[in-house]
Design goal:
CATH class of the largest domain: Alpha Beta
Number of domains: 2
Structural class: alpha/beta
CATH topology of the largest domain: Rossmann fold
CATH architecture of the largest domain: 3-Layer(aba) Sandwich
Distance between the termini: 39 Å
Strand order of the largest sheet: 3-2-1-4-5-6-10
Shape: globular
Bound molecules: nicotinamide-adenine-dinucleotide
CATH superfamily of the largest domain: NAD(P)-binding Rossmann-like Domain
Helix content: 25-40%
Oligomer: single chain
Length: about 325
Protein backbone atom coordinates (compact mmCIF):
# COMPACT_ATOMS: atom_id res chain seq x y z
CA UNK A 1 0.00 0.00 0.00
CA UNK A 2 1.31 3.44 -0.89
CA UNK A 3 0.24 7.03 -0.55
CA UNK A 4 -0.33 8.46 -4.04
CA UNK A 5 -1.16 11.98 -5.20
CA UNK A 6 -3.33 12.02 -8.31
CA UNK A 7 -3.41 15.46 -9.89
CA UNK A 8 -6.45 15.83 -12.15
CA UNK A 9 -8.12 12.86 -10.44
CA UNK A 10 -11.61 14.32 -10.87
CA UNK A 11 -11.36 14.15 -14.66
CA UNK A 12 -12.16 11.35 -17.07
CA UNK A 13 -8.98 9.28 -16.98
CA UNK A 14 -7.82 10.38 -13.52
CA UNK A 15 -11.08 9.34 -11.82
CA UNK A 16 -10.83 5.81 -13.22
CA UNK A 17 -7.22 5.66 -12.04
CA UNK A 18 -8.16 6.78 -8.54
CA UNK A 19 -10.75 4.00 -8.36
CA UNK A 20 -8.20 1.42 -9.56
CA UNK A 21 -5.62 2.63 -7.02
CA UNK A 22 -8.14 2.61 -4.17
CA UNK A 23 -9.24 -0.91 -5.11
CA UNK A 24 -5.60 -2.02 -5.10
CA UNK A 25 -5.36 -0.80 -1.50
CA UNK A 26 -3.51 2.48 -2.03
CA UNK A 27 -4.32 5.70 -0.20
CA UNK A 28 -5.13 8.42 -2.69
CA UNK A 29 -5.23 12.19 -2.45
CA UNK A 30 -6.78 13.95 -5.46
CA UNK A 31 -5.75 17.49 -6.34
CA UNK A 32 -8.10 19.04 -8.88
CA UNK A 33 -9.34 22.55 -9.58
CA UNK A 34 -12.56 21.12 -11.11
CA UNK A 35 -12.04 23.26 -14.24
CA UNK A 36 -13.01 20.31 -16.44
CA UNK A 37 -13.42 17.70 -13.71
CA UNK A 38 -16.34 16.85 -11.43
CA UNK A 39 -16.68 16.37 -7.71
CA UNK A 40 -19.04 13.41 -8.39
CA UNK A 41 -16.26 11.61 -10.33
CA UNK A 42 -13.89 11.92 -7.41
CA UNK A 43 -15.44 9.15 -5.35
CA UNK A 44 -12.48 7.14 -4.22
CA UNK A 45 -9.78 9.56 -3.10
CA UNK A 46 -9.66 12.47 -0.65
CA UNK A 47 -10.40 15.44 -2.89
CA UNK A 48 -8.44 18.65 -2.38
CA UNK A 49 -9.92 21.34 -4.59
CA UNK A 50 -7.08 23.55 -5.71
CA UNK A 51 -4.77 24.79 -8.36
CA UNK A 52 -1.65 23.07 -9.62
CA UNK A 53 0.07 26.44 -9.89
CA UNK A 54 -0.58 27.26 -6.22
CA UNK A 55 2.70 26.52 -4.47
CA UNK A 56 1.24 27.70 -1.14
CA UNK A 57 -1.25 24.84 -1.44
CA UNK A 58 1.22 22.24 -2.72
CA UNK A 59 3.89 22.82 -0.08
CA UNK A 60 1.74 21.93 2.98
CA UNK A 61 0.04 19.13 1.00
CA UNK A 62 3.42 17.48 0.44
CA UNK A 63 4.60 18.29 3.98
CA UNK A 64 1.52 16.62 5.53
CA UNK A 65 1.42 13.56 3.28
CA UNK A 66 4.24 11.14 2.78
CA UNK A 67 3.59 10.65 -0.94
CA UNK A 68 5.30 7.74 -2.58
CA UNK A 69 4.45 8.86 -6.12
CA UNK A 70 2.54 11.44 -8.15
CA UNK A 71 0.34 10.67 -11.15
CA UNK A 72 -0.30 13.79 -13.19
CA UNK A 73 -3.41 13.88 -15.38
CA UNK A 74 -4.24 17.60 -15.06
CA UNK A 75 -4.01 19.57 -18.28
CA UNK A 76 -5.98 21.50 -20.83
CA UNK A 77 -6.29 19.21 -23.82
CA UNK A 78 -8.37 20.75 -26.61
CA UNK A 79 -6.22 20.99 -29.72
CA UNK A 80 -8.27 23.74 -31.39
CA UNK A 81 -8.37 25.88 -28.24
CA UNK A 82 -4.61 25.47 -27.85
CA UNK A 83 -4.10 27.03 -31.29
CA UNK A 84 -6.33 30.01 -30.40
CA UNK A 85 -5.02 30.46 -26.86
CA UNK A 86 -1.52 28.98 -26.54
CA UNK A 87 -0.81 31.03 -23.40
CA UNK A 88 -3.44 29.05 -21.48
CA UNK A 89 -1.81 25.79 -22.59
CA UNK A 90 1.80 26.65 -21.87
CA UNK A 91 0.81 28.22 -18.53
CA UNK A 92 -1.27 25.30 -17.29
CA UNK A 93 0.38 22.32 -18.94
CA UNK A 94 4.02 23.44 -18.72
CA UNK A 95 4.35 26.07 -16.01
CA UNK A 96 1.82 24.34 -13.72
CA UNK A 97 3.65 21.04 -14.11
CA UNK A 98 6.98 22.73 -13.39
CA UNK A 99 5.58 23.97 -10.06
CA UNK A 100 4.51 20.47 -9.19
CA UNK A 101 7.87 18.96 -10.12
CA UNK A 102 9.78 21.52 -8.05
CA UNK A 103 7.66 20.80 -4.98
CA UNK A 104 8.18 17.07 -5.55
CA UNK A 105 11.96 17.48 -5.72
CA UNK A 106 11.96 19.66 -2.59
CA UNK A 107 10.02 16.95 -0.73
CA UNK A 108 12.07 14.11 -2.25
CA UNK A 109 9.09 12.47 -3.93
CA UNK A 110 10.94 10.92 -6.84
CA UNK A 111 8.35 8.85 -8.74
CA UNK A 112 6.26 10.62 -11.35
CA UNK A 113 3.83 9.31 -13.96
CA UNK A 114 2.79 11.73 -16.65
CA UNK A 115 -0.11 11.73 -19.13
CA UNK A 116 1.47 12.47 -22.45
CA UNK A 117 -0.10 12.09 -25.85
CA UNK A 118 0.19 10.93 -29.44
CA UNK A 119 -0.06 14.65 -30.28
CA UNK A 120 3.64 14.99 -29.39
CA UNK A 121 4.44 13.15 -32.65
CA UNK A 122 2.65 15.49 -35.06
CA UNK A 123 2.12 14.25 -38.62
CA UNK A 124 3.05 10.57 -38.69
CA UNK A 125 6.01 9.71 -40.88
CA UNK A 126 5.13 6.02 -40.52
CA UNK A 127 2.65 3.86 -38.63
CA UNK A 128 2.40 2.13 -36.23
CA UNK A 129 4.15 4.89 -34.29
CA UNK A 130 6.88 3.65 -31.98
CA UNK A 131 8.97 5.59 -29.47
CA UNK A 132 11.70 6.23 -32.08
CA UNK A 133 9.28 8.19 -34.26
CA UNK A 134 10.30 11.89 -34.51
CA UNK A 135 8.37 14.18 -32.16
CA UNK A 136 7.30 17.26 -34.08
CA UNK A 137 3.99 18.46 -32.63
CA UNK A 138 1.82 20.57 -34.90
CA UNK A 139 -0.17 22.40 -32.23
CA UNK A 140 0.52 24.06 -28.85
CA UNK A 141 -1.25 21.25 -26.96
CA UNK A 142 1.17 18.65 -28.32
CA UNK A 143 4.10 21.04 -27.90
CA UNK A 144 3.18 21.68 -24.25
CA UNK A 145 3.23 17.95 -23.52
CA UNK A 146 6.52 17.47 -25.35
CA UNK A 147 8.06 20.31 -23.33
CA UNK A 148 7.18 18.46 -20.13
CA UNK A 149 8.71 15.27 -21.54
CA UNK A 150 11.95 17.20 -22.15
CA UNK A 151 11.84 18.81 -18.70
CA UNK A 152 11.50 15.33 -17.19
CA UNK A 153 14.69 14.19 -18.92
CA UNK A 154 16.62 17.08 -17.36
CA UNK A 155 15.01 16.57 -13.94
CA UNK A 156 16.02 12.92 -14.05
CA UNK A 157 19.67 13.69 -14.70
CA UNK A 158 19.94 16.73 -12.43
CA UNK A 159 17.69 15.79 -9.49
CA UNK A 160 17.19 12.04 -9.79
CA UNK A 161 13.45 12.35 -10.45
CA UNK A 162 12.36 9.04 -12.02
CA UNK A 163 9.42 9.34 -14.38
CA UNK A 164 7.31 7.44 -16.86
CA UNK A 165 5.52 9.32 -19.64
CA UNK A 166 2.60 7.37 -21.05
CA UNK A 167 1.63 8.64 -24.47
CA UNK A 168 -1.99 7.72 -24.97
CA UNK A 169 -3.59 7.54 -28.35
CA UNK A 170 -7.43 7.69 -28.00
CA UNK A 171 -8.69 6.97 -24.49
CA UNK A 172 -12.23 5.62 -24.53
CA UNK A 173 -14.78 3.41 -22.81
CA UNK A 174 -16.03 3.70 -19.26
CA UNK A 175 -16.01 1.97 -15.90
CA UNK A 176 -17.84 -1.35 -16.54
CA UNK A 177 -19.50 -0.95 -13.12
CA UNK A 178 -21.14 2.23 -14.40
CA UNK A 179 -19.78 4.58 -11.71
CA UNK A 180 -17.49 6.65 -13.92
CA UNK A 181 -17.20 7.75 -17.53
CA UNK A 182 -16.39 10.54 -19.94
CA UNK A 183 -18.03 13.96 -19.40
CA UNK A 184 -15.99 16.39 -21.49
CA UNK A 185 -17.65 19.66 -22.44
CA UNK A 186 -17.16 20.40 -25.24
CA UNK A 187 -16.81 16.76 -26.25
CA UNK A 188 -14.35 16.20 -29.09
CA UNK A 189 -13.84 12.42 -28.97
CA UNK A 190 -15.47 10.22 -31.58
CA UNK A 191 -17.07 7.47 -29.49
CA UNK A 192 -18.94 9.72 -27.02
CA UNK A 193 -19.99 12.00 -29.90
CA UNK A 194 -21.40 9.04 -31.83
CA UNK A 195 -23.24 7.81 -28.74
CA UNK A 196 -24.65 11.26 -28.01
CA UNK A 197 -26.12 11.14 -31.49
CA UNK A 198 -27.83 7.89 -30.46
CA UNK A 199 -29.13 9.16 -27.12
CA UNK A 200 -30.52 12.35 -28.65
CA UNK A 201 -28.12 14.71 -26.85
CA UNK A 202 -26.74 15.51 -30.31
CA UNK A 203 -28.64 15.54 -33.56
CA UNK A 204 -26.18 13.56 -35.69
CA UNK A 205 -22.54 12.57 -36.07
CA UNK A 206 -20.56 14.09 -38.94
CA UNK A 207 -17.95 12.02 -40.77
CA UNK A 208 -15.21 14.42 -41.85
CA UNK A 209 -13.85 13.07 -45.12
CA UNK A 210 -14.48 9.81 -46.98
CA UNK A 211 -11.52 10.11 -49.32
CA UNK A 212 -8.56 9.27 -47.08
CA UNK A 213 -6.08 6.64 -48.31
CA UNK A 214 -7.58 3.96 -46.05
CA UNK A 215 -9.64 0.89 -46.91
CA UNK A 216 -13.02 2.57 -46.41
CA UNK A 217 -11.83 6.16 -46.96
CA UNK A 218 -12.34 7.32 -43.35
CA UNK A 219 -9.62 8.11 -40.77
CA UNK A 220 -8.19 5.31 -38.66
CA UNK A 221 -7.43 5.77 -34.96
CA UNK A 222 -6.19 3.59 -32.13
CA UNK A 223 -8.76 3.29 -29.32
CA UNK A 224 -7.61 2.23 -25.89
CA UNK A 225 -10.03 1.30 -23.12
CA UNK A 226 -9.73 3.40 -20.00
CA UNK A 227 -9.20 0.30 -17.83
CA UNK A 228 -6.25 -0.77 -19.99
CA UNK A 229 -4.79 2.72 -19.51
CA UNK A 230 -5.21 2.36 -15.76
CA UNK A 231 -3.44 -1.00 -15.84
CA UNK A 232 -0.50 0.57 -17.67
CA UNK A 233 -0.28 3.29 -15.00
CA UNK A 234 -0.35 0.74 -12.21
CA UNK A 235 2.40 -1.22 -13.95
CA UNK A 236 4.43 1.96 -14.43
CA UNK A 237 4.09 2.65 -10.71
CA UNK A 238 5.45 -0.83 -9.91
CA UNK A 239 8.20 -0.35 -12.49
CA UNK A 240 9.38 2.80 -10.70
CA UNK A 241 8.87 1.31 -7.24
CA UNK A 242 10.92 -1.82 -7.91
CA UNK A 243 13.79 0.28 -9.22
CA UNK A 244 13.56 -0.90 -12.85
CA UNK A 245 12.48 2.51 -14.05
CA UNK A 246 15.45 4.84 -13.61
CA UNK A 247 15.56 8.16 -15.41
CA UNK A 248 12.88 9.57 -17.72
CA UNK A 249 11.11 6.86 -19.67
CA UNK A 250 8.35 7.07 -22.23
CA UNK A 251 5.97 4.47 -23.63
CA UNK A 252 3.38 4.69 -26.39
CA UNK A 253 0.04 3.21 -25.40
CA UNK A 254 -2.48 1.89 -27.86
CA UNK A 255 -3.92 -1.37 -29.04
CA UNK A 256 -1.75 -1.32 -32.13
CA UNK A 257 -4.88 -1.99 -34.09
CA UNK A 258 -6.73 0.86 -35.69
CA UNK A 259 -10.44 1.25 -36.31
CA UNK A 260 -11.83 3.56 -38.95
CA UNK A 261 -14.50 6.18 -38.24
CA UNK A 262 -16.88 4.10 -40.37
CA UNK A 263 -16.14 0.94 -38.34
CA UNK A 264 -16.72 2.79 -35.06
CA UNK A 265 -20.07 4.07 -36.27
CA UNK A 266 -21.10 0.63 -37.55
CA UNK A 267 -20.26 -1.05 -34.24
CA UNK A 268 -22.03 1.74 -32.35
CA UNK A 269 -25.12 1.29 -34.55
CA UNK A 270 -25.18 -2.41 -33.62
CA UNK A 271 -24.71 -1.72 -29.90
CA UNK A 272 -27.41 0.97 -29.64
CA UNK A 273 -29.83 -0.95 -31.92
CA UNK A 274 -30.12 -3.60 -29.18
CA UNK A 275 -31.82 -0.90 -27.08
CA UNK A 276 -33.89 0.41 -29.97
CA UNK A 277 -31.77 3.47 -30.83
CA UNK A 278 -30.25 4.67 -34.10
CA UNK A 279 -27.47 7.08 -35.05
CA UNK A 280 -27.96 9.70 -37.75
CA UNK A 281 -24.80 10.20 -39.82
CA UNK A 282 -23.94 13.34 -41.82
CA UNK A 283 -21.15 13.77 -44.34
CA UNK A 284 -18.56 16.55 -44.02
CA UNK A 285 -15.36 17.73 -45.66
CA UNK A 286 -11.91 16.69 -44.42
CA UNK A 287 -10.67 18.80 -41.48
CA UNK A 288 -7.21 20.38 -41.54
CA UNK A 289 -4.65 18.57 -39.40
CA UNK A 290 -6.38 15.15 -39.31
CA UNK A 291 -3.84 12.49 -40.35
CA UNK A 292 -5.31 9.48 -42.21
CA UNK A 293 -3.93 6.91 -39.77
CA UNK A 294 -2.75 7.22 -36.16
CA UNK A 295 -1.89 3.88 -34.62
CA UNK A 296 0.51 3.11 -31.76
CA UNK A 297 3.26 0.55 -31.61
CA UNK A 298 3.06 -0.36 -27.91
CA UNK A 299 5.61 -3.17 -28.06
CA UNK A 300 7.95 -1.40 -25.62
CA UNK A 301 5.21 -1.10 -22.97
CA UNK A 302 4.44 -4.78 -23.48
CA UNK A 303 8.10 -5.75 -23.06
CA UNK A 304 9.10 -3.40 -20.25
CA UNK A 305 5.90 -3.02 -18.23
CA UNK A 306 4.31 -6.36 -19.11
CA UNK A 307 1.25 -4.48 -20.34
CA UNK A 308 -1.45 -6.48 -22.15
CA UNK A 309 -4.65 -4.66 -23.15
CA UNK A 310 -7.69 -6.65 -21.98
CA UNK A 311 -10.44 -4.59 -23.58
CA UNK A 312 -9.20 -4.14 -27.14
CA UNK A 313 -12.46 -5.34 -28.62
CA UNK A 314 -14.35 -2.37 -30.10
CA UNK A 315 -17.78 -3.71 -29.20
CA UNK A 316 -16.80 -3.97 -25.53
CA UNK A 317 -15.39 -0.44 -25.56
CA UNK A 318 -18.52 0.99 -27.18
CA UNK A 319 -20.88 -1.01 -24.95
CA UNK A 320 -19.26 0.35 -21.78
CA UNK A 321 -19.37 3.89 -23.16
CA UNK A 322 -23.01 3.41 -24.20
CA UNK A 323 -24.04 2.29 -20.70
CA UNK A 324 -22.49 5.50 -19.37
CA UNK A 325 -24.13 7.65 -22.05
CA UNK A 326 -27.54 6.16 -21.23
CA UNK A 327 -27.09 7.23 -17.61
CA UNK A 328 -26.06 10.73 -18.61
CA UNK A 329 -28.95 11.10 -21.03
CA UNK A 330 -31.29 9.51 -18.44
CA UNK A 331 -32.52 6.88 -20.90
N1 LIG B 1 -8.69 11.66 -23.21
C1 LIG B 1 -7.78 11.29 -24.11
O1 LIG B 1 -8.08 10.60 -25.10
C2 LIG B 1 -6.33 11.68 -23.92
C3 LIG B 1 -5.40 11.31 -24.91
C4 LIG B 1 -4.06 11.64 -24.73
C5 LIG B 1 -3.67 12.31 -23.58
N2 LIG B 1 -4.59 12.70 -22.65
C6 LIG B 1 -4.13 13.42 -21.45
O2 LIG B 1 -4.62 12.72 -20.32
C7 LIG B 1 -4.89 13.63 -19.26
C8 LIG B 1 -6.29 13.41 -18.74
O3 LIG B 1 -7.21 13.60 -19.79
P1 LIG B 1 -8.78 13.57 -19.53
O4 LIG B 1 -9.41 13.21 -20.82
O5 LIG B 1 -9.06 12.79 -18.31
O6 LIG B 1 -9.05 15.12 -19.26
P2 LIG B 1 -10.04 15.81 -18.21
O7 LIG B 1 -10.21 17.23 -18.67
O8 LIG B 1 -11.27 14.99 -18.05
O9 LIG B 1 -9.22 15.76 -16.86
C9 LIG B 1 -8.25 16.72 -16.50
C10 LIG B 1 -8.46 17.04 -15.03
O10 LIG B 1 -7.45 17.96 -14.61
C11 LIG B 1 -8.03 19.02 -13.86
N3 LIG B 1 -7.15 20.19 -14.00
C12 LIG B 1 -6.84 20.85 -15.16
N4 LIG B 1 -6.01 21.87 -14.88
C13 LIG B 1 -5.78 21.86 -13.54
C14 LIG B 1 -5.01 22.67 -12.65
N5 LIG B 1 -4.33 23.72 -13.11
N6 LIG B 1 -5.02 22.37 -11.34
C15 LIG B 1 -5.73 21.30 -10.87
N7 LIG B 1 -6.48 20.51 -11.65
C16 LIG B 1 -6.51 20.79 -12.97
C17 LIG B 1 -9.41 19.19 -14.47
O11 LIG B 1 -10.34 19.82 -13.61
C18 LIG B 1 -9.79 17.72 -14.76
O12 LIG B 1 -10.42 17.12 -13.65
C19 LIG B 1 -4.64 15.03 -19.83
O13 LIG B 1 -3.35 15.43 -19.43
C20 LIG B 1 -4.69 14.81 -21.32
O14 LIG B 1 -3.90 15.76 -22.00
C21 LIG B 1 -5.91 12.39 -22.80
Amino acid sequence: MANILVVGGAGYIGSHMVKALAEAGHQVVVLDNLSTGFRELSRYGRLVVGELADVTLLEPLFAENDFHAVMHFAANSLVGESVKDPSKYYRNNVSGTLNLLDVMVRHKVMHFIFSSTAATFGEPEYTPIDEAHPQQPINPYGASKLMVERILQDYASAYGLNSVCLRYFNACGADPEGELGECHDPETHLIPLVLQAASGRREAITVFGRDYPTEDGTCIRDYIHILDLCTAHAQALDYLANGKGQGALAFNLGNGQGFSVKQVIEVAQQVVAKDGYRIKVNEGERRAGDPAVLVADAQLAREQLGWRPQYADLETIVSHAWAWERQRARL
